[in-house]
Q: What sequence folds into this?
């Protein structure tokens, strides 16, 4: 079900069983698979791949050459930078133990990945399946996420590690002044609580 207000580039391939919310824009050579659910006001750049059954909230920006596989849930207001790749199988194999090619979903186990509201994932990052990226967390470019990331955490590296905390605006927080605080934002003039 595709709303009339949706803009789909002629080179994009969108399944007729995908649900696309109003004012969403899907650009060149993107592919949206069967039963994908995409919210309102989203922007998908060139060559974005959205696998079957993926769920994406409202106001999400997914940049060029991103792959989002079955088992991924992206909540509202998330930014996914160019060339980010999500995985969905912790033990990937092309063949079964008997040597036959894996073809059916029953041949592998999909692990769920959740990207929570307002978080951002930097260019070229890899998100291993079975992880949760917390609300308003910030994943630095080129990171490999191997475990859960708490709300507002700033992480980067391989593997990604906590390097501080960020405000809703994305700026790094100043050190906390209480045990209930993650830190203080000089720009927003607020203390972010745990």
A:
């Amino acid at each position: 079900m595709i709303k009339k207000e949706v803009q789909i580039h002629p080179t994009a391939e969108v399944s007729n069983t995908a649900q696309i919310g109003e004012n969403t824009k899907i650009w060149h050579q993107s592919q949206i698979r069967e039963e994908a659910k995409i919210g309102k006001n989203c922007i998908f750049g060139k060559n974005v791949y959205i696998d079957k059954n993926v769920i994406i909230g409202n106001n999400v920006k997914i940049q060029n050459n991103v792959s989002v596989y079955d088992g991924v849930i992206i909540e509202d207001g998330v930014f996914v930078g160019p060339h980010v790749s999500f995985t969905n199988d912790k033990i990937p194999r092309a063949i079964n133990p008997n040597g036959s090619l894996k073809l059916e979903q029953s041949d592998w186990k999909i692990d769920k990945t959740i990207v929570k509201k307002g978080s951002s994932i930097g260019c070229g990052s890899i998100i291993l399946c079975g992880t949760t990226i917390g609300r308003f967390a910030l994943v630095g470019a080129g990171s490999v996420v191997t475990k859960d990331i708490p709300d507002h955490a700033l992480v980067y590296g391989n593997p990604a590690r906590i390097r501080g905390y960020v405000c809703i605006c994305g700026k790094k927080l100043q050190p906390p002044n209480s045990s209930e605080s993650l830190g203080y934002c000089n720009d927003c003039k607020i203390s972010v609580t745990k």
In short: The longest strand covers residues 161-165. The two ends are 39 Å apart (CA to CA). Residues 119 and 136 are 4 Å apart (CA to CA). The mean pLDDT is 95.
